[in-house]
Amino acid sequence: MFLICLLHDLGVSEVGNGRQRFEVDGADVARAFLLEAGFEQERADKVWAGIALHTSDGIAPRFSPEAGVAQVGIATDIAGIARDAPPADLIADALDAWPRHDLGYAFAEDIAAQIAATPEKASPVNFPGHVTALGMPPGKAPTWYDMVANSGWGDRPLHRRPGAPAAAETPDQRTKLFLERLRARDLDGLLALYEPSAAAGRPTGGPAAGHEAIRADLSALIDSEVTIELTARSAAHGSGLALLSHTAAFTAPDGTATVRDTTEVARRQADGRWPYAIGDPFFSRRPSQSRDHLLS
Fold first, then answer.
1. pTM across the whole model
2. Which of 79, 98, 154, 187 has a Cα-to-Cα distance from 261 of 20 to 30 A?
3. Contacts of 77 (CB under 8 A, 6+ apart)
4. How many helices, marked H, and strands, marked E, lie in the chain?
5. What does the alpha-carbon distance between residue 50 and residue 71 come to, in Å, rounded to a whole number?
6. Tell me: the pLDDT tens digits for 204-234?
């Protein structure tokens, strides 16, 4: 266990920087070092397993007690799991002897730098892949769904299966779907066009945040029997994000019309959908164009 803990990050060093995920590269270097130093094969193999599995919680303990205990200790060092278990004076002495130097962040930066030079060192479904994704623009990091889409088996996400409600697969498609579902008084369909943590603008006060609040506002919009026409004004698409604006013409049942400019932010999801992250027809907050009377 001592050797596992002492050598477990050799894969982040230059000598351990091969073409495999850093845990396995480091395990290979550690085992070769121990065998060269005269260790028995069985002991060197135990160290290899502990290092190769040190980011695999739930798996390491099944291989050996040493690997399991080392994995928990390493998780304490990085993620603070069971942080209060070691005596305070032991932690203080250790930090005095070996300052952390922002280990949690510096360590991730080193792994990401290695993978930038050798992309095959990371898969989107393992720890190195996750660390790499943290530094990539939104929507650019490969995901599990990207792997499935490229598998050649033809598996489809839920929104592409026969009979499933249509989903916006480009930022512009949301506008058409929003208007169709509003006219159909389809509250669930409208809500599906928003991220669970989305925000929707209100004429006064803070935005409606989250599905529960947005559902209430959409329900009020449907009940008001307001008709809406949307004309695209501008659009800017980035990496997984889109900023759009429309001219919205609101017409109340009594014929009263209000026109204003809207602002929307859409975000690409891992399965290819583009729901609203933010939708705000009141972004400018111009009192003369308030929609309050339309929703009363």
1. 0.64
2. 187
3. 103
4. 13, 7
5. 7
6. 778 899 999 999 999 999 999 999 999 999 8
